Amino acid sequence: MDRILNKSYETLYIVISTGQSKELLGKTMDGLNKMSDEEIEAYYKIYEVSYAQRMNDNLIDAVYRMYAFVLNRYLSIDDTETLVEDLQNNYILTSELKSLTGGLAATFGKFVAIAELGTTTLKHIKRPQETELDNTQELNKELCKEQ
User: Fold this and answer.
1) Nearest in space to 29 (alpha carbons), one of 13, 45, 10, 41
2) How far apart are CA 130 and CA 128, in angstroms?
3) Is the pLDDT higher at 103 or at 58?
4) Based on CB atoms within 10 Å of each CB, which residue in 34, 35, 109, 110 is the most buried?
5) CA 24/CA 11 separation, integer angstroms
6) Measured between alpha carbons, how far is 23 from 25 in angstroms, rounded to an integer?
7) Cβ atoms within 10 Å, residue 134
8) Positive or negative CA dihedral for 50, 53, 56, 62?
């Protein structure tokens, strides 16, 4: 039990020291050193559930964004952000994906961070059509200024 509590204590210490206790535990924690072993273990369980939920939500969001990005490469999607929102609001789809991603988050947490880096970057990539349109608009503005 000491090993589990030691890991629990260390994890909670990191969460508190980085200022994420309110965000991940639902409240601020004072006096970690004064807590009993049972309290530490209870807060650690709350942290694990909260962390898994956030990771699950981010994984599903990444799946939706990648899907919309790839789909938009081959089909003309009117608004990819609206498509992502519609997918996120689909209860059945999201519930089924949560059942798939739950184990992934726990098992491959470090690799999920790398995937998040990719999907966050993906959100900021302009489609070639948008870039061409922007360049054409800039060229038109310059031509109008010259005349």
Assistant:
1) 13
2) 5
3) 58
4) 35
5) 12
6) 6
7) 11
8) negative
Give dist(CA 113, CA 105) in Å, integer.
10
**In whole angstroms, what is the distance from residue 98 CA to residue 146 CA?**
56
| CA–CA distances in Å: residue 76 to residues 7, 22, 83 | 50, 42, 12
Residue with more model confidence, 68 or 116: 68
pLDDT per residue over 14-62, tens digit each? 878 777 777 777 666 667 777 788 888 888 888 888 887 888 888 888 8
Taking the whole predicted model, whether its pTM rises above 0.90 is answered as no
Question: Mean pLDDT in the chain?
Answer: 76
Q: How confident is the model at residue 87 (pLDDT cuts 50, 70, 90)?
A: very high
How far is residue 57's CA from residue 51's CA, in Å, rounded to a whole number?
Answer: 10
Q: Give the DSSP per-residue string, 100-133.
A: HHHHHHHHSHHHHHHHHHHHHHHHTPPPHHHHHH
76 in Cβ contact with 40 (< 8 Å): no
User: Among 3, 1, 12, 92, which residue's Cα sits nearest to residue 50?
Assistant: 12
Sorted by sequence, the CB contacts under 8 Å of residue 23 that are 6+ apart come out as none
Helix (H, G, I), strand (E, B) or coil at 28: coil
